User: What shape does this take?
Amino acid sequence: MPEQFVIETSLGDITVELFDDTPLHRDNFKKLVAEKYYDGTTFHRVIDGFMIQGGDPLSRDPSKRHLHGTGGPKERIPAEIKHKNKRGTLAAARDNNPAKASSGSQFYINVADNDFLDLPQYGYTVFGRVIEGMDVADKISLVKRDARDNPIEPITMKIRPKNAQE
Assistant: This one.
């Protein structure tokens, strides 16, 4: 059975399961969750009809709002492009690099079928899917945001394995 994680947000919980055929991304996500890396970070980029993105450690600090989306580990994760960017999928964000290597921590949840992200010139690693709480992801995508698509009221998160109790 695929491993499941609960993304606890200030607007509700989203449960995701990770794909076994993207082991580098799966294991990186599991490691960061175990280190409580995501706790206190926010969904710093949300776009209705597209996606919600989080996982930047700089997003914990409101005074660094202008830098949200630029932080994370220096290491990149080699691309494991095997799944499509369909509604409800969990994917790794990345900067523009020819190898399509993923960010060390930032991820997004597709709130729509984003087939254009699967075109060869783009290519993102999809490494999981939402199994509960897609309504919460939709709610997050609709919040008021600034010109950089950063929610005016921070949407904080904490991620834990589904079977773990706090």
Observations:
- The chain has a mean pLDDT of 95.
